[in-house]
Design a protein that fits this description.
Length: about 150
């Protein structure tokens, strides 16, 4: 492993942390800045009423704006904190990488839902960005405060 590899991996870990922090705090511009202009953000392996797919920064921004506005009483949580754990990053070339990162979301009820991100990363203008994020949920509490949130903000 070279110094450039280590720097790339650390930049990618920072990117994933920035996405999570911005998303939990509903800092839309910071959140959207984590993506390439043509990025795809989508869910997989969830019930049909909770599937989503947003293509491009503007679609991702519009979704976050709906979420922040609380349209349709988005969810019942007073806070959400995504805790990241294992993160496996594979550098595929000087400007491409892929990753898998496990997460659990905590809300007022404690552990609310959990899963992992499957990411395709691309380096543009010297900065690593998310080109494609697939959000996969493995588990949710029967009392989840986010059970209907995605459908309400779609």
């Amino acid at each position: 492993m070279t110094l450039d590899d280590l720097l790339a991996r650390e930049a990618l870990r920072d990117l994933v942390a920035r996405y999570t922090t911005a998303g939990d705090r509903l800092r839309i511009e910071e959140f959207v800045s984590c993506f390439t202009e043509d990025a795809v953000l989508e869910s997989e392996r969830v019930a049909a009423d909770r599937l989503f797919r947003y293509e491009g920064r503007e679609a991702i921004r519009a979704w976050q704006e709906r979420w922040r506005a609380g349209e349709g009483d988005t969810h019942g949580a007073t806070f959400v904190r995504h805790h990241l754990s294992t993160s496996k990053i594979d550098l595929l070339g000087p400007a491409t990488a892929q990753g898998r990162t496990y997460w659990v979301a905590w809300t007022d009820i404690g552990p609310d839902h959990a899963g992992y991100y499957l990411d395709a990363f691309r380096r543009e203008g010297g900065e690593w960005l998310i080109a494609h994020r697939r959000v996969r949920m493995d588990w949710e509490s029967p009392q989840s405060l986010f059970r209907t949130a995605v459908g309400r903000s779609a």
